[in-house]
Amino acid sequence: MLFMCCLAIAASLFATAHYLVIDLPAQKSLPAPENAKSSTANCDICKLNCLIDPDKYSCLSLCQELECSEKV
Questions:
Q1: In this structure, what is the dihedral angle of CA atoms 35, 58, 46, 44, given to the nearest 10 degrees?
Q2: d(CA 32, CA 11)
Q3: Is residue 2 over pLDDT 60?
Q4: Burial letters for 26-61: b for 16+ Cβ neighbours within 10 Å, e otherwise?
Q5: What is the DSSP string of 4-63?
Q6: pLDDT greater at residue 35 or residue 66
Q7: Under 8 Å CB-to-CB from 40, ≥6 apart: which residues?
Q8: pTM of the predicted model over 0.90
Q9: CA distance 26 to 14
Q10: Residue 20 has pLDDT above 70, yes or no
Q11: Distances in whole angstroms, Cα of residue 49 to Cα of each of 14, 25, 33, 56
């Protein structure tokens, strides 16, 4: 009986340590994604796509509608 109590206490301590070291850090929230409006990633992708588009001028006008910070 004493052996079972000691085993239960040891298992509880091990489970607590496992939770604190492994499970809790994995549950921390990820940082919020970068806001798409202030990012130039969409503009850069649009410009790269326009390089191979046969109608380059209409493609670039679509890129301007993305409100790129720099002139297209």
A1: -90
A2: 37
A3: yes
A4: eeeeeeeeeeeeeeeeebeebbeebeeeeeeeebee
A5: HHHHHHHHHHHHHHHIIIIIHHHHSPPPPPPPTTT-SHHHHHHHHHHHH-SSHHHHHHHH
A6: 66
A7: 68, 69, 70
A8: no
A9: 18
A10: yes
A11: 54, 39, 23, 9
Range 44-47 contact pairs with CB under 8 angstroms and sequence separation of 24 or more: 47/72
Which DSSP state fits 69?
S
pLDDT digits (tens, 9 = 90+) for 42-70: 777 777 878 887 887 778 777 777 666 55
Degrees to nearest 5, angle at CA 17 with 12 and 18: 95
Residue (of 45, 32, 33, 48) closest to 66 by Cα position:
45
What is the pLDDT, as a whole number, of residue 26? Answer: 76
Q: Could you identify the residue written with the tokens 């492994």?
A: 22
